[in-house]
Amino acid sequence: MAPRPSLITFLTFILLVFHKAAMAATFIFLNKCDYTVWPGILANPGSPKLETTGFQLMKGGSRSFQAPTGWAGRFWGRTGCIFDDSARGSCTTGDCGSGEVECNGAGTIPPATLAEFTLGSGSQDFYDVSLVDGYNLPMIVEGNGGSGECATTGCVTDLNKMCPSELRIDGGDACKSACDALGNPEYCCSGTYNSPAACKPSMYSLLFKSACPKSYSYAFDDASSTFTCTGADYTITFCPNVPSLKSSNTTDESGSDPMQASALDSQWLANLATGDSTKTQPFSGIQFGFVLTIISVLL
Known about the structure:
By secondary structure, the protein is of the alpha+beta class. It contains six helices and twelve strands. The strands form three sheets. Strands 3-1-12-9-10 form a five-stranded mixed sheet, with no helix packed on it. The C terminus is likely disordered.
């Protein structure tokens, strides 16, 4: 006797659930800047490489790819890049020094705004947006369809416009961290300052924190800068300047993905400083258990 259609449907759902567990997250990159951005990707030691280590993202463009459970690494945006027909060249900010569009295992040369992830560590994902290595462009990270806190984080302020002269790079396209620019141990949290008790916020990190209250501003800025979520996909948006919030599971009349229109409205900007956020609840553990019970009855 052929399996009943309802059983096939439930078994298909279970296979999809296990596929999602194997592929921990989908990363969606959106470029809302008025210029092309070349995202760079660096996996932490021991983490598998993703399908690319660097690519071109045109103005208004998007790209997505999947990462496996346990993946950890960082993303950033490179700007002012010039690459020839052989994909060789360099960037004004965020360059990884590979001489190619692909970073090939090389990290960013500061200053650059960083998005950092650890997927599925103890069932939770950990993520943050860091200015510890300086800043080159606005960036936010949004969790889509996860459970838990799943707060949106990032830096929407143009720090290049308020960067102190001693931290500003030539041309004003990026702002160095105090550690990178001045090298003092108290700014770098190094030497005798290598502990949370000894390394305190400086006037420079406080400037960054005031402008971007949910981003890492110095090495031990953990309490207000690290976020967790379970079972989510993540959207990384460069220059998030469209005044609307996303609808996570629908498309507009043109058929376009509404994630491409996601960013911040005025209320969300206020909530960013207080830790409030919007999030979508996933298929719950109770509902999942209910499905398994039905399957056992059908079998």
